[in-house]
Amino acid sequence: LLDLHVMAAQSSQRRVAAERAGRLIRAKKRRVEVQYEDEGSLEVCGQGGTGWKPERWREQFDNIISMRRDRNAPVDAMGAEKQSGDDLPPKVSRMHVLVSLMLSSQTKDQVTDAAMTRLRERGLTVDTLLSMEEREIADLIYPVGFWKRKAQYLKQTCQVLKHKYGGDIPKTVHELCQLPGVGPKMAHLTMNIAWKEASGIGVDTHVHRISNRLGWVQTTTKTPEQTRVELESWLPREYWIEINLLLVGFGQQTCLPVAPKCHECLNRSLCPFAGRNLKTT
Fold first, then answer.
1. Predicted structure pTM score
2. Is 185 a catalytic residue?
3. Which of 108, 164, 185, 222 is catalytic?
């Protein structure tokens, strides 16, 4: 009988201890959760700000402007800025910008420009593309990258433009990104070029590569979208429209993907990548 009393007392003590431990664990969890929420509320780079910016970005930027003074890169003659057409009705002009950007993905400017020329010869409007078979559009835009898929996207996009926007293009990044085959880069560039609005920075492979080489991102970024967020966190908004064309041409002529011409670059003493590259060549 005594043993039973002892066992019952021990069981009660273990139960009380377990309950106390449970309360402690729950309290610890609550404290961790509160601290996590506090950390999550802190502003981060790309969302308004740590206040970080590259130390000598202004010098680097001015040097690139100087190196690009002739504006004779392929993008200057054949990029989306040149596809709008001053003599076109505004709706058609904006549509040409969007189409050229949709074709330009994974495609050289020369190939995109040739495809746009063939489309314009057929009368490039929303109604014209809707009247064509998808195969016919594909033949006209070949050999742009992913030409079959892009022909499908163009047809589907024109249906949306016709029925939802009265033949015009959307006027917000969110709506542009709802169009088939249109992502953030194309959407921001469309806003910049077609609507003259600095909604964000259009970051393609050139802007992404050069920003990382120059140290214009606080930490190395893996995607153009990450680079866009980093750049927008510190670059003054007045340069958001200009920077894409500036860096794309610079990337086509000097800061090449392979064998960049660091020895010719005015930023060779200011660029972390050039410092490493010149030591190994």
1. 0.80
2. yes
3. 185
